[in-house]
């Protein structure tokens, strides 16, 4: 059974940092792209970042470029999102999602975690 | 970025109704269009990919169609568990963008 489980969310002050983790199981982790998608309270879905199966390619939304870093450890079946210089507008539930292909393009998100809430507030 | 526009933003329907949701892309995306269902407090769930392919385990009352810029999600006979918010998403060009969502409520 495919499972992805996020952790690491919490309350952080503006300008602070946080690292999210996503533990995956039930599939060959290194064979699929992985992504972070967020949802601000009461709002829609926003793609944040993706990485290819081997971690060699990474992609970011303009809204987080230069502040967030996605990475993966295929030996631990774990995806990460390092979030720096956090802003109030980064407040959201962050979902880890599995892609359907090795590269994050022209595919779909076939499995999602339950999400972890990040609140940026003083 | 490609803009995805769903209509309506919300609708009220009764159990047994046929429901159609539309998604329009700001430029042609072929059939690189996916549909997700989200219930309150839960993660999104993939329903349909590549415009018309039903994800494994999804009931056959859900169907998708379209290509280019115009797409539809149809629920043939609405069931109580189908009351949720539905999102379309394009994967033709980065960044992968979502529609704003359509909330299906009980009439």
What would you note in describing this structure?
- The complex is a heterodimer of chains A (122) and B (107).
- Helix content of chain A is 0%, strand content 50%.
- Chain A is globular, with a radius of gyration of 13 Å.
- In chain A, strand 5 (45-51) and strand 6 (58-60) form a beta hairpin.
- Chain A has no helices and eleven strands.
- In chain A, the strands form two sheets. In chain A, strands 2, 4, 5, 6, 9, 10 and 11 form a seven-stranded mixed sheet that branches. Chain A has a four-stranded antiparallel sheet with strand order 1-3-8-7, with no helix packed on it.
- With 122 residues, chain A is an all-beta fold.
- In chain B, 36% of the residues are buried.
- Chain B has strands at 4-7, 10-13, 19-25, 33-38, 45-49, 53-54, 62-67, 70-75, 85-90, 102-106.
- With 107 residues, chain B is mainly beta.
- The interface between A and B is medium-sized, with 23 and 23 residues.
Number of helices of chain B: 0
- DSSP strand count of chain B: 10
Distance between the termini of chain A: 40 Å
Helix-strand category of chain A: mainly beta
* Rounded average pLDDT of chain A: 97
Helical content band of chain A: under 10%
* Overall geometry of chain A: globular
Spans of chain A of at least 5 consecutive residues whose pLDDT stays below 50 are none
